[in-house]
Amino acid sequence: MVAGEPEPNESPNESAGSAPDPSEPAGRASAIRPFLLTAGRVAGGGTGPPLPVETQIVATASGISVLASLAFEQRDIVAACRQPQSVAELAARLRLHLNVVRVLAEDLRAAGHLAVHVPHAGTTQDISVLRRVIDGLRAVPDSRDTLRDSG
Amino acid sequence: MVSVPSPTHGTHSVTAVEPPPVPVKLVIAGGFGVGKTTAVGAISEIRPLTTEAAITEVAAGVDDLSHTPGKTTTTVAMDFGCITIDPTLKLYLFGTPGQDRFGFMWDDVVEGALGGLVIVDTRRLDDCYAAVDYFEHKSIPFAVAVNAFDGEVHHDLDEVRWALDVSDHVPLIVFDARTTGSVRDALLVVLEVALSRAEGATGG
User: Which InterPro entries does its entry note (chain B) (predicted)?
Assistant: First the structure.
């Protein structure tokens, strides 16, 4: 959770068992605070295209070691990335705007606290990857009993 | 119940740094309330997550983007889930926002997708035109899936194909967004399109 960030409409993490309601996202990201977090910077501003939403981010050993000295969102991001996370997952779990996560992740990478694994552009044409996805998907059973809560 | 090889997903590593999987993604598109989140939830191994994505909204009727005053960026909620194929490969499913007849540019989400599934409610065919157009324009492999609400489809598939004006090589299927197996099979149809296209590109 973002430290000290009151969100008027925020509901607690979805309680297990309740059906997700597509029309009512639980806790929308704040509209103004993102600009404070990134000092007004936006993703993709100059240095290249924005990180794809599925980009995997993982904390580095040095990031973990300085965790206590990091502030707020930076700390939340590095802590969450003890296990690899996509940009989209990070944004959802920390209730941050996608573009805020992009900017902060780039900062943290520059500082050596995160490793950012941008997907290769050629993957969509990679026959062996496509075959593995197809085989993996075929192994999904006809019904799933329970969904794991994320996190 | 058949016991299934569930993805090994223990809580490994306290001290970081396992190599991340290669991420791939499919996009699930369609009009508002058509069953995108239902479909994601039916097959995702995690409860669908929601995040805020930016999309570029182009005012209707504006064709030439170079002189467009009507182009704005909107923030919308986007639902997604994932399936761990194996420890080195993870499939993400993104439900693209898009709930009206404006043209949307989902590049932010769609760039790099293996393919797309456009979900159709036959009672509101109009709602999916934007998605069909988009995938055709971007040459992204896709299939169209009619969501059989309550097991019923109100139109003949040939009529739907005619009404949507999708070409014959685009698969058109009926599925049930609530059912894991049905969503799985629909996604497999998309992936087969992607595979045959990739094979065609390399094999000649």
Answer: Gliding_Motility_GTPase, Gpn, P-loop_NTPase
Distance from CA of B96 to the nearest CA of A (A): 12
What token pair was written down for B123?
Answer: 């009672």
Residue B105's pLDDT is what?
A: 59
Q: In what order do the strands lie in the sheet with A56-59?
A: A85-86, A56-59, A114-117
| pLDDT tens digits for range A70-95 | 988 899 999 999 999 999 999 999 99
DSSP, collapsed to helix, strand or coil, labels residue B47 as coil
Q: What is the mean pLDDT of residues B154-159?
A: 84
Is domain B22-203 classified as CATH 3.40.50.970? no
> In this structure, which amino acid lies at residue A105?
A
Question: What is the spatial distance between Cα B142 and Cα B197, in angstroms, rounded to a whole number?
Answer: 11
β partners of residue B29: B118
Task: Let me know: does B160 contact B120? Beta carbons within 8 Å.
Answer: yes
B69 three-class SS: coil
User: Which residue in chain B is spatially nearest to A44 when comparing CA positions?
Assistant: B108
At B82, list the tokens: 């994932």
At B98-148, the pLDDT tens digits run 654 444 557 778 889 999 999 998 888 888 888 898 899 889 999 999 999
